[in-house]
Amino acid sequence: MSIGQWSEYINTNVKEIPPSGIRKFFDLAAEMEGVISLGVGEPDFVTPWHIREACIYSLHKGSTTYTSNHGLLELRESISQYLGNQGVRYNPQDEILVTVGVSEALDLALRTVISPGDEVLIPTPCYVSYIPCTTLAGGVPVTVATHMEDHFKLTAGKLEAAITPKSKVLLLCFPNNPTGAVMSREELLQIAEVVRRYDLLVISDEIYDRLTYTGEHTCFASLPGMRDRTITLNGFSKAYAMTGWRLGYAAANAEFIAAMTKIHQYTMLCAPITAQISAMEALRNGKSAMEGMVAHYNRRRRLILQGFKEIGLPCFEPGGAFYAFPYIGETGLTAAEFAEELLVEEKVAVIPGDVFGPGGENCVRCSYASSVEDLTEALERMGRFLQRRR
Ligand code: PLP
């Protein structure tokens, strides 16, 4: 059989999905020397030592087995307490599922609730997985564009305008990747009112909840009436600098969790035990190390915003996560041209905003999870780049 024919065997949903727009830039940057990357959405810190130590100790003790499908009960109890502190109670026995990152939790949640043809409302710009994972689950992604003028916030009006009889799920992410937008409790209450009126289900990805710099994070499920129609996703990658450990969780009413666990038990069995033990340490004793990292991100956030101001790049002030999403429309370049030319000419890697969906066309994503030295140098290079285009 020739190579060409093998593509006949590939599932049509998989064929439809475009390759990640982010990867292309990583690959380009990896081939060059002296590149400062503001491209990756990953903490530049190593996991705090006490968390790594807990892992080492667990290995010494011989904790090398599977755990229950749901995850270690002690970890679920810590997660339940963590969410309880945000105003929403989940029973650790059957309302929390420990997963391999938020990535797995997202995939499970979508596959659990979507029947073929169901529409998933996705405010954009959004995390790159949302649209392809919806398609893979057999759903129809319906994007709801947000814009810089509205501070990249979803409004009740925009949401309502996108709802059809096939709408089933709203996929929320605040603080947002890639814009850094946050939503206040009052703003989320207006969204909740539409959710209730149209009987939607919400998947709320709150992986950046601790990385909130302006005001308090509101857990969507804690809003009146939202607990039983929300699947809350969260994890350890961002707040505790644990991307490589691959640990996250979903919290929802017992019926959703039982259904998600059906898929999880056959596909993943359980999350890695070493990561689970380490996550327990993170939740029990990791608050001050986490807050220290968050303080660093906040200083860098101010630095990059000030830098953009000085070089004349308009940028909405992000209230969370570790991304800035400046507007590059005034250069006359598309986001892809801007990112490519900046990389080639000044060796700074940023991600074109359109890879995150409608609303991101004239912006680029810059991660400020980088050292102050790198950020300062990157801003200088970007300033030179802009000067040449004026
Ligand atoms: N959700 C969002 C919004 C993200 O930005 C990311 C990673 O960048 C993920 C989920 C994936 O997280 P995890 O490492 O827990 O799989």
UniProtKB/TrEMBL annotation:
| SUPFAM superfamilies assigned | PLP-dependent transferases (SSF53383)
Q: Which domain of life is it from?
A: Bacteria
State the signal peptide span: none
Which parts of the sequence belong to the Aminotransferase class I/classII large domain?
Answer: 34-381
Against InterPro entries, the record matches this protein to: Aminotransferase_I/II_large, AspAT/PAT-like, NHTrfase_class1_PyrdxlP-BS, PyrdxlP-dep_Trfase, PyrdxlP-dep_Trfase_major, PyrdxlP-dep_Trfase_small
Arranged from A to Z, the UniProt key words for this protein are: Aminotransferase, Pyridoxal phosphate, Transferase
Q: Name one Pfam family in it.
A: Aminotran_1_2
Which PROSITE patterns does this entry report, sorted A to Z?
AA_TRANSFER_CLASS_1 (PS00105)
Please list the cofactors this protein needs. pyridoxal 5'-phosphate
**Which processes are annotated in GO (biological process)?**
amino acid metabolic process
What's its EC?
2.6.1.-
Which terms does the record give in the GO molecular function aspect? pyridoxal phosphate binding; transaminase activity
The family note in this entry says:
Belongs to the class-I pyridoxal-phosphate-dependent aminotransferase family.
What name has this protein been given in UniProt? Answer: Aminotransferase
Q: According to the entry, what is the taxonomic lineage of the organism?
A: Bacteria, Bacillati, Bacillota, Clostridia, Eubacteriales
